[in-house]
Structure formats: structure tokens, C-alpha cells
Design brief:
alpha/beta, 7-stranded parallel beta sheet, 6-stranded parallel beta sheet, 46% helix, binds uridine-5'-diphosphate
Length: 356
């Protein structure tokens, strides 16, 4: 059996890391296509090295374009690879343009598509990720859902009547968090003893000046009061803040360059709280038993909110500060198991092997 995995962005490298190992252990040939959506050393290479992901067989180097141009170029190049390699299946992860391009190229050629992290919905069609998720799910043959909620989303959309196999696999990010936890490494920096870990990068947070300004008012306020903030700064957010003439030198926030996964785990283990608009980080906060303030109006990971691990703060400065102080008072019970048993990779490969 020959599988082509299409990945291109940081969260996908993390998601693919464990599944790749299980595929190799099962003697399944996997070729990786790296679309190039993320390409900096600290957004790409470091993950392949530290997480021992097989080197990509193809590097498409497609980045810095509009959504249409990026997806279109990927589609064309991936199609050429599929014509040449003739895989049995294409494996895609998450909700980026690379996910959609990989799935679309394969499905038009009647090559089986497996989607890991299927069934998630934010119900916000303004998010490019939501569009990518919905379209990818619809053209996939195997849908690997991380949660029961994701399965239920697909059922509500009528997937019972669509000939796709739905598998409740658990969450591959939990596999990664467990596997790499022992390898966590402190960043080579002076860090405050007590700090919150913050990341911000989504288009809805960064592309609207009023929203971005609001978010940073709130974060500056929090960092100025009781808790320092350490923020590995995403290149997109950095560019937008520069555009706003944000004063980095007088900011109370400690900005650092994006870090690799092992350093990120160290930060997760050692922070007080997580503040983020990232999807993956909301779950990682839970894996490492940290409460999370989500700087968005909705989340795909609704079970975290229901159980009091995650607090949806929106993007209004006032509401963020209010929700932050509410969150500080809560003591949720972290002894639940919302995302499977850390064996999602095994479940995924088992289903792939037996898929007809
Ligand atoms: N991450 C990382 N280094 C950083 C920032 C994030 O390794 O400097 C990891 C983070 O732990 C999570 C993933 O990248 O596993 C999340 O990626 P991102 O926030 O870019 O995407 P999203 O999860 O929102 O799709």
C-alpha cells in the first residue's frame, strides 16, 4: 500500500508526526508532499527534525499568495505528483489550504482520501479554515473524527447517507503530547517565573485593525497587572503589529520567536494559563492541565468549554478582562479523558489498512 500525505503548515506537521511513525511500523509506504505553506526554519524544518518526521519527497514551495492562488497552484502540482506516483490513498490533516488542495486533487482522480481531524465545525463561515474543513470532509472517503461531537456534526449534516466511513479515532495531538512530553526542552531564554503562554495568528484576529488593537489592549493590561505573558510571535501577527506601529520595546509582553514543539511543550508545562486563538493550543492547554482563555467568539472544541477548561473571551477588551478574571477563580477537574487514549495514530492506521 502506498500513501501520499499532503501537509504544509505547522499544526499539520505535529498531527502527522505520530501517524507517520505508526504507518512505518506497519510497513506502509508513505511519501510526504510539503506544500510550503509554512517554510521558515522555526515554522517548518525544526518540526521535521525534532519530531523525526520523514523528509518530504516533494517540496512545492507555495506560499505568500492569496487563498485562491495558493490553493490553485497546490492543486495543479499535487495532481502531477498523483499522476506520477499512483498512490492508493491520500492522507490530509486539519483545515488548511493544503488540506483542501490534497483532498480535491485526489478525489477528482478517484484516489481514496482520508481526512484526519474530520467533523470539526466552528459554524463561522468567515473562517477560511471552516470552508476548508467542510469541503474536505465532503470529498473524503474515511473521516477520522477526534471527538464524539465531530461525529455528531457529520451525522447532522447527513453523512449517514453518504458513502464515507466515519471513524471515532481520538485525537492525534494527544498522541503527540504524550509521546513528546518527556522530551520537553526549556527555551534558551530568560523567562519570568510566573507567566501565561499566549499565541495569536488567525486571520480573524490579525486582519481587522480594530480587533487586533482590542486584543493587544487586553493582553497589555493582563501583562501589566498580575501575570507576565510570553508570546511566541507568528510572522503574520508580527507583520500586522508592525503595520500598526505597535511599540514592541515598551510592551509588557515578552515576545519570542516561534519555537519548536519540544520548547512549546516546556512552555505549556510551565505556564499558569494559556491565552490563544489557536485551535491546537486550546487542546494542548487541557493535555497539560492548564486553563485556557480563547480569544475568539466560538471554538470547534466545545467540550473544553462545557467542562470549564476553556473560556471563550471574544475579542472585546472589556469582555476579555472580565472572562480572564472569571477563569482565574475556577478550578475545573482535569481528570477527564475527552480526546481518546493517546492511541489515535494506531486507530487511524488500522482503519486505513482494512479500508476497501
Ligand atoms: N506551536 C509551536 N510553536 C509555536 C507556536 C505554536 O510548536 O511557537 C504549536 C502549538 O503547540 C500547536 C500548533 O503549533 O501544536 C498550533 O499551531 P497554530 O496555532 O499555528 O495552528 P492551529 O492549531 O490554530 O491550526
Amino acid at each position: 500500500m502506498k500513501i501520499i500525505t499532503v501537509i504544509g503548515a505547522r499544526p499539520q506537521f505535529i498531527k502527522a508526526a505520530m501517524v507517520s511513525k505508526v504507518l512505518a511500523n506497519n510497513g506502509i509506504e508513505e511519501l510526504i508532499v510539503h506544500t510550503g505553506q509554512h517554510y521558515d526554519n522555526n515554522m517548518s524544518d525544526i518540526f521535521f527534525e525534532e519530531m523525526e518526521i520523514p523528509k518530504p519527497s516533494y517540496n512545492l514551495d507555495i506560499n505568500g499568495l492569496t487563498h485562491g492562488a495558493m490553493t490553485g497552484q497546490m492543486l495543479e502540482k499535487i495532481e502531477n505528483i498523483l499522476i506520477f506516483e499512483k498512490p492508493d490513498m491520500v492522507l490530509v490533516y486539519g483545515d488548511t489550504n493544503s488540506t483542501l488542495a490534497g483532498a480535491l486533487a485526489a478525489s477528482k482522480m478517484h484516489i481514496k482520501v482520508a481526512h484526519v481531524e474530520a467533523g470539526l465545525r466552528s459554524f463561522n463561515m468567515k473562517m477560511p479554515e471552516e470552508i476548508n474543513r467542510i469541503l474536505t470532509d465532503r470529498i473524503s472517503n474515511i473521516l477520522f473524527c477526534p471527538t464524539k461531537e465531530a461525529v455528531s456534526n457529520l451525522e447532522k449534516e447527513g453523512y449517514d447517507n453518504i458513502s464515507a466511513k466515519i471513524v471515532l479515532s481520538g485525537d492525534v495531538m494527544q498522541d503527540a503530547a504524550i509521546f513528546y512530553s518527556q522530551k520537553a526542552r526549556k527555551p534558551n531564554l530568560e523567562l519570568p517565573n510566573k507567566f501565561s503562554l499566549c499565541t495569536l495568528h488567525r486571520a480573524e484576529s490579525t486582519d481587522d485593525t480594530a480587533i487586533l488593537t482590542n486584543l493587544f489592549h487586553a493582553l497589555d493590561d493582563i501583562a501589566n497587572s498580575d501575570n507576565s505573558i510570553v508570546m511566541p510571535l507568528h510572522p503574520r501577527t508580527k507583520a500586522k503589529l508592525n503595520g500598526l506601529n505597535y511599540n514592541f520595546s515598551s510592551s509588557p509582553i515578552l515576545f519570542i520567536n516561534p519555537v519548536g514543539y519540544l520548547e512549546m511543550i516546556w512552555l505549556l508545562k510551565n505556564c499558569n494559563y494559556v491565552l490563544t486563538d489557536s485551535g491546537g493550543l486550546q487542546k494542548e492547554a487541557y493535555f497539560f492541565r492548564k486553563k485556557c482563555l480563547t480569544l475568539r467568539n466560538e471554538t470547534e472544541w466545545v467540550e473544553l468549554v462545557e467542562h470549564g477548561f476553556n473560556y471563550l473571551a471574544g475579542t472585546d477588551c472589556h469582555k476579555i478582562l472580565e472572562t480572564y478574571s472569571l477563569m482565574q477563580k475556577k478550578e475545573p477537574d482535569f481528570t477527564t479523558n475527552l480526546y481518546g487514549n493517546g492511541k489515535a495514530g494506531e486507530a487511524i492506521v488500522k482503519a486505513i489498512k482494512s479500508f476497501k
